[in-house]
Amino acid sequence: MTARHPLGSDLTNQRSDRQRRTDRARSPQWKEPNPEDSNGKTIYNLVMPKKPLIVRAHDAVIAHLWDGGLAVDATAGNGHDTCFLAERVGPTGRVIALDIQECAVTATRAQVEDAKLSERVSVFKADHANLLDYVPESWIGKTSVVLFNLGYLPGSDKKIVTRPETTVSALTASLSLLAGDGILSVLLYLGHSGGAAEATAVSKWLEELPVEHFAWESIGSEKPNDPLRHKNATPILTLVTRV
Ligand SMILES: C[S@@+](CC[C@H](N)C(=O)[O-])C[C@H]1O[C@@H](n2cnc3c(N)ncnc32)[C@H](O)[C@@H]1O
């Protein structure tokens, strides 16, 4: 079976189908399809990773962070990801975090203060579509990590969610920030209203990335709308790097 992006495009634009099959066959996450599992419906041979995808996202970005690094948290929320980034860039690194909600900005600032990381973090109440208005020009082409954790703020108004148009604008802006060895991490969720439309927009955006400049891979359920998975519509993690 050919591995496919959860919403239709290739799972990665980088590796051949054969390479991907070999990679997965070697991976502990790989399991051969078992028709018994499917109740007679088609099943998919890409299983959900055992680690939560947010942990996978953190694992992926750690490799791109070092003391003195620059990082952007495009969806600050409760500040967990902001603190994660701030700890890893060290005292001489800098993190910029954005969120459209006042409560998220307050929560993030509080988390950052509690963790004694305030000197290396700036938090703005802003739409990430306007990311480049908040990030110094000197960060263009020098930023190690841009992190998106899309959807709604847990414990808050679930109607305030990231939206396809602003997400796509922000993703495009993020690419201009990325250093040669930087990484863009995008975690999106399909379970909330608007989640599928956002996933479709991100998928289309990925398909249009110039392959000579960017490589990407996505991890998650192969077919999120499968009735077998519907109850727990799965998240999808996409990682973009420069070629
Ligand atoms: C899943 S939460 C982020 C979780 C967060 N990274 C953390 O560590 O707690 C998604 C956040 O995106 C924010 N958001 C929604 N639309 C946004 C936009 N256009 N620009 C910036 N933030 C946005 C929401 O307010 C919400 O806090």
Q: In total, how many beta strands? A: 7
The figure for the number of domains is 1
From the spread of the alpha carbons, the general shape counts as globular
Q: Work out the helicity level.
A: 25-40%
Structural class: alpha/beta
In terms of DSSP E residues, the strand content is 15-25%
Bound molecules: S-adenosylmethionine
Number of helices: 6
State the distance separating the first and last CA atoms.
27 Å
The CATH architecture name reads: 3-Layer(aba) Sandwich
Q: Ranges with pLDDT <50 over ≥5 residues?
A: 1-10, 15-47, 226-232
Strand order of the largest sheet: 3-2-1-4-5-7-6
Give the ordered list of helices and strands: HHEHEHEEHEHEE
| CATH homologous superfamily identity | Vaccinia Virus protein VP39
Radius of gyration: 18 Å
Main beta sheet: strand number and arrangement?
7 strands, mixed
How would you describe the overall organization of this protein?
The structure is a single chain. The protein is α/β, with parallel strands linked by helices and 243 residues long. It contains 6 helices and 7 strands. The chain has helices at residues 17-26, 53-62, 80-89, 102-114, 164-177, 195-207, and strands at residues 70-73, 94-99, 121-125, 143-149, 178-188, 214-220, 236-242. A 7-stranded mixed sheet has the order 3-2-1-4-5-7-6, sandwiched between helices. Helix 5 (164-177) packs parallel to helix 6 (195-207). The chain is globular, with a radius of gyration of 18 Å. The model is unreliable at 1-10, 15-47 and 226-232 (pLDDT under 50). Bound molecules: S-adenosylmethionine.
